[in-house]
Amino acid sequence: MWTPAALASEFRRYRKTVWRVVEAQHRISTNRLAENSEDQKRLEELAEQAKPNLPKSARGLHYLFASPFRYGHKSPSRFRRADERPGIFYASEAESTAIAETAYWRLRFFSRSPDFVPGNRTSEHLSFSVAVSTSRAVDLSRPPFDTSVKNWTHPDDYTACQDFARIARKAEVQLIRTLSARAPGDGYNAAIFDPALFAGKEPAYRQTWHFRFEQGRLNAIAAFPGGGNFAFEPEMFGLPGLRQV
């Protein structure tokens, strides 16, 4: 069992550009509720007041940066227990890895919904990048942590990761680097605990992606002028195959 002091002795420098993929909710949705720009501004101010408070270091950041730290979701994630706050900004070191992570969660939702048959509707996602830098990172893919790599990349059981993250928070770890469980081999993820790591306040908008389930697989297609195209079958992630209407 690691202690905060022992963990602090393993700090590494981390300086990279990381990627995140989100559902395309970046367009202003309050437009349809307001008659003019003044009413819209007031509506957005009221909505902001109703939200949980942001950590101090996240204030003033673009909402794509800040939102993950605001909420404590009821469903746990790899390095966060249910309802634990502040939240974590999960990202990947390659755009393709972030796409694979997103594809897994969509296919997992499909496969675990009883009697659900995915249609062929296209959903829109947005990938964006941000440079991060810290001297308080730990790398679970390197010694002495790599001996427990099966714990860090278990597809479903996050207990070891959450226990580690609890100690990491006490040690004031700002970032945890780990192998991706969804894009094994050369895929790496970063769990960012402190928004102070971001090099800027605005993300670099990179690419719109269209996700579409057809012929038993989920296709991720980059919108023009991008040329990326990925295909993911449920079995690639250890999920049961899906039928389609």
What do you see in this structure?
The chain has 245 residues and is an alpha+beta fold. The model has no long low-confidence stretch (mean pLDDT 88). It is 24% helix and 27% strand. It is globular, with a radius of gyration of 19 Å. It starts with a helix and ends in a 13-residue tail after the last strand. The protein has 6 helices and 8 strands. 31% of the residues are buried.
* C-alpha Rg (nearest Å): 19 Å
Structural class: alpha+beta
Q: Beta-sheet strand percentage?
A: 25-35%
Total of helices: 6
Biggest beta sheet summary: 8 strands, mixed
H/E element string? Answer: HEHHEHEHHEEEEE
Proportion of residues in helical segments: 10-25%
Average pLDDT score: 88
Outline of this structure?
This protein has helices at residues 4-8, 37-49, 63-70, 95-111, 149-152, 159-170; strands at 12-23, 89-92, 122-139, 175-179, 188-192, 204-214, 217-222, 229-232. With 245 residues, it is α+β, with helices and mostly antiparallel strands. The chain has a domain at 4-103 and 131-198.
Helix and strand arrangement:
Blueprint: H1 4-8, E1 12-23, H2 37-49, H3 63-70, E2 89-92, H4 95-111, E3 122-139, H5 149-152, H6 159-170, E4 175-179, E5 188-192, E6 204-214, E7 217-222, E8 229-232
Please name the defining characteristics of this protein.
globular, 245 residues, 8 strands, alpha+beta, 8-stranded mixed β-sheet, 24% helix
